[in-house]
Amino acid sequence: MIEKTTLENGIRIVTENVPAVHSVTIGIWVESGSRHENQTQGGISHFVEHLLFKGTNRRSALEIAREIDSVGGVLNAFTSREYCCFYAKVLARHLPLAIDLLADSLQSSVFDLDEIEKERRVILQEISMVEDTPDDVVHDLFSQAFWENHPLGRPVLGSRESVKNMCRDDFLDHLKTCFVGGNILVCAAGDLVHQKVVDLIAGAFSQIVPGAKKQILSPPDYRPSLRFNHRDLEQVHICLGTRALPQNHPNRFSAYVLNTILGGSMSSRLFQTVREEQGLAYSIYSYLNSHSDAGALVLYTATSTENAPLVVRLMLKEMHRFRSEPVSRAELKACKDQLKGQLLLSLESTDNRMTRLSKNEIYLGRQPSLKQVLGEFEKVTVESIQRLAQFLFQDDYLNLQLLGPIDEKQFPLLDLTLG
């Protein structure tokens, strides 16, 4: 059973009671991420996420860690382009402790200057780690080119320059601006009673003042490009993508099916063609990167320098195939069964249920039932997939990023086109 309550200060609370489980996962979602930042403070949401577990007026960082460990729980956080999430998973009887730890961290962190400098060094190392991992950095290069000069194109971690220049007052101003009632969503799933959760949250987060939800001012433009990013690597890392649908688009279920058939699993067309039939790559996949007002469908793989042009052509060929010929009904049925099975299996986890509650509230403003979601998958047709492919897969939106030992002279594919 899913229930929702909004507190006087604007905090929304959505819970789901899950029978026959012993755990509760609770998340505090702050609807402010990297796309809400200005360029000079890029990465501040992520920096604050790190600092909020580094000591409060009541607890040191070590005491926070020991308290959650002492009950066998998990306490963690992550930042994306549109939100930050601070979450805990515990046995149901320890939910009051989990809420107290989260509330203490989000409202009473001291932002000690020594801890700030330590965490600044940690984040700079995190940036270096990404830069040293080509199968990570190529996705950032894709976003930067695809959404050029837009906040969605900037990395969530920020830049070295922005991270080095942030100070304690910046973090306090960020909390004051973003951690307000209308911008906070609390979701919990597991062995719980809704009203008890509401009472605990109302008491623990009483310091949160009312305030308006962060608004997204401008959707991005889609920018086609072909870029060669030379680096001394063993392989060429390839990101090829095009526009996709936003999170709340009515045709999103067709997009889920299209992506799964294209590169969403080991039975997908890309995996079978590039790896199993041709032996050209170890890993190849596609994914949807969807936001509140925009989206991208991205294909990724890594291969040898000499095989890179052929692999790109095979990727383009598979995309063109969706436009020119309908998928088979057998392929469509198998994909629907796969997606429905994955959804049902995910619901065995209170973590996944909590995340599902949150994203539905953030992007849809409602909680579709499981029956409704399964029904939407059943509505996807061969024709709807082909129409969507013809809408998405157009030359004007194609973006290709190549990272590795390759440059324009080595690469014979001069025109990026679906034919």
Can you describe this structure?
With 419 residues, this protein is α+β, with helices and mostly antiparallel strands. It has 2 domains: 2-204, Metalloenzyme, LuxS/M16 peptidase-like (Cytochrome Bc1 Complex, Chain A, domain 1), CATH 3.30.830; 225-404, 2-Layer Sandwich (Cytochrome Bc1 Complex, Chain A, domain 1), CATH 3.30.830. The protein has helices at 44-51, 61-70, 95-108, 113-131, 134-146, 160-165, 168-178, 194-204, 252-263, 269-277, 308-324, 329-346, 350-364, 370-379, 382-392, and strands spanning 2-6, 12-17, 23-30, 74-79, 84-91, 184-190, 225-230, 236-243, 284-290, 295-303, 399-404. The strands form 2 sheets. Strands 1-2-6-3-5-4 form a 6-stranded mixed beta sheet, with helices on both faces. The protein has a 5-stranded mixed beta sheet with strand order 7-11-8-10-9, with helices on both faces. Strand 4 and strand 5 form a beta hairpin. Helix 9 packs across helix 12 and helix 10 (269-277) runs antiparallel to helix 11. It is globular and about 60 Å long. The model has no long low-confidence stretch (mean pLDDT 94).
